[in-house]
Amino acid sequence: MVASALTCRPPAPLSVGQFRRIAERGFGDGRNSYAYCYAWFRDHLYIGTNRDLLVLLKQRFRFEVPLAIWPVPVPEKIDPQDLCAEIWRYAPASGEWERVFKSGLVTGRENRTVPLAAGFRNMAVFQGRSDPAPAIYTIPSCGSNGQGVVLMRCADGETFEVVSEPGMGLGNDNITSFRGVIAFKGRLFATPSGSRGANPNVSHHAAILCSDDPASGRWEVANPLSFGDPTNLSIHDMAVCGGWLYAGTMNVAEGFQVWKTDAEGDPPFHWTRVLDHGAERGPFNQVVVSMCEFRGDLYVGSGIQNGGHDRIHNVGPAAGEVIRVRPDDSWELCVGDARWTRHGLRAPASGMGPGWDNPFAGYIWRMVEHDGCLYVGTFDSSTFLPFAQIDPHAAQLLDPATIQRFMQVRGGAELWRTSDGVRWTAVTRNGFGNHFNYGIRALVSSPYGLFVGTANPFGPQVAVRYPGGFRYEDNPRGGIEVWHGAPRDGVVGDAAPLSIDLTRQRIRMAGLTHAESRGAVRRIPGCAPGRVGAASPASRPRPVLDAPLVFDHATGAGADDYLWDPLLRLALSKELSDGGASVEQELAEYFGGPLRNAGLWLNSTDTPASASAALVTEVVALLSESPAPGAAALLIAGRGLAGLVPLVRRARPADRLTALALDALSREDAAHVAEHAEIRRGKPSRFTLPKARYDAIVWIEGPAVGDRRETLRRLACGLRPGGVLAAAELLVEAIEVVGGRTGAPGGDPIGAFRSDLESAGFEIGRVLDVTSDGWLRMFRHSRLYFALRLLMHQIDHELHDAALAALPGGREAVAAHVLVCARKKGA
To answer: Are 108 and 145 in contact, with CB atoms under 8 Å apart?
Structure first.
């Protein structure tokens, strides 16, 4: 521990702005799901992993989770090599990670090839009687088909060796994993907590084993089995506090129990019961998930297995509690439900309910004291909301856009801190800005700061909801993350998002003094308000963010303007315009390329380029749902053909590809398009197509412009009977001036578009309204972006207005944004 509770100096609490991410994407492999165990040894951090947790959960566990789609793809058969657990080591002095162990394969039950270690769930530093020096001890999980648990030891910090036979000589082949391993009074204590038959949390007898020389294979039972109560199914965690060893049980019938011993004499030791009946909350406090000593008291974190809802025993859902046990065995409720007990009323000292008033916090998963504060991390089931089956009535409130915004602000695990157990402060409430971090699984105090490892089983691929349904895509935020918290001048590692008040954000100007840079937001040298700067491109200053911007997730500050983070990064990364700036240059910079449409702003989309590509991908995906034949001859039309044609070709290969150019193409763009497709030219509503030439047409924002019915008729003429039109459309209404007031007429724009499609000879398959996630998001994003450009004097008012008019939708009254899949009638 870095700072003892007896030191005189005040606590040095950490906020989210003092954390930096030092590992991501499962150490480069998204199959590494949890920072499952941890140790501090020889000035290094050690992290043990498990693998493909959600795949195993779907294939092997005995209950179903009601989801619209499973979050990750599940293969029919799992390659055993993919399940081999790993151990990683981090050197804070150099900032380097190294994998020091990867499990090999062995022959398990029924001659199956299985990993020796399917997951590392525990680690402890201990020196046994035969050890020349302290070493890391760990007992990896072997899985239901494994050959049996083994004891592993690392004495030199680099080499992990097996120092026991399978089964560890315990005479019980049913045990598949251990959870708690801790050193106390010259012995290593370990608790079995998993058994065959896909029971990762239940050993069916709450036993504690101990040994003063683990490598010798001599283990003794340290407690009466199940403490004399057969409803105690296992022991999840242990802690040392005030000269006592504490153990917490799992009890699905009546709620957890907490026991303590001084471990004097020979085992089995004498144990005293401290808590029972889940601190009188009953089964809602099913299991002690975590325990930690802080300022002389024992803090206990509760939970319900399987994420806060035990579907096997029908317990929950409910959030966990934090309970403080005094040295005299009296107890107080810090965070939880107020209730009457045998000892009178127990109300939470913090005034906060279970899970700090978060119903998704199913576990109080990890605790650690660091530098005078207690840090507590949770498991949060809100991460599953984007994949949940939503009741039709609830869907009116929990539409995809609302769920997405909630996930950005409050999705993912929470980390809290306290200096007294009463006043609590959130360090992060959204998994450090990544809602796939659904758990804080590792907390390690070190001389270098606090290390936080996450549980994140949403990689390498994850299901992404689009208007047309879910698709599995690569997930750049899936897999274990490790964060390092330390005072600013002590941080090692790459920069990570900080929580900074927008009004206090510092902007560093290249070539300016600190005093000059204080006025940089209001005025940039060489630029006067209302005109474009005259400085030459080589000499003009460029604004650079001192740190990436995000809103404060702990307090929620800035949550209503979550788009400002990517907007500022985008707008302030541009060079100042010179006198030759044009609308075309502005659009090229805004969209980041030739692909220019309103886009689909889903999930983590935060740039026009990614939104535009997402829209095209979704339109092409509609073709696969059509009963029409494959697109042997495909026509493509829309804004930015130079970007559109290659993207469609990759997503939907065709024998013959034609690009319909309705706007002027530059020579460079025309050459680029010609590499992939034949070019056919025309003008909106005045083009012609060869009769019955094409099997499919992909049209991005076009038919609604001009004479829509005539455009749709011409498209139908070019399709063969049964051919498919897949399109993205901005449905525009004419502006009427009535009584001196300007406004758009009422009506049903989507219904009118359906009618036009049918009149043109189409049979409608799907019409999806994506207005809220499409054009409205682009409208807001683009207006804020160009407003920032104007505010920074990077463009003038004239260029600002012209750029807005040239965007998709321009100055028109856009009534709806839809995706369409329609088939030409006929055999």
So the answer is: yes
